[in-house]
Amino acid sequence: MADASVRDIPELNSAEKTGTKNNEGLNKVVNAIISIETSKECMLDLEKQYQRPENCYLKVPRVNKEIWDVTGKNADAVNLKLQVIQKSIASGMTLLKLSTDGWVSHK
Fold it and tell me: Is pTM, for the whole model, over 0.85?
């Protein structure tokens, strides 16, 4: 079987309706960013540099200790994996919000 690039795989839902195209240069940057795994150190540096605004509540939900006492270790392991994903999403959304705020305030 020949190696196929991700770009060679046809879209699974080609009937999906899309809007107009946007800036191709920006698309290349965004596609490159989401295609490369980010190191933990890089994420920690970004989180320190771009802290969550006081009035922004994007953060990983916490589970009460009493719930952990009742659930099994499997639930704990699954939740830890979800927390990593949620933290990455929250960090990305915070950066997006800060960027949008900067753009709106300079407009």
Answer: no
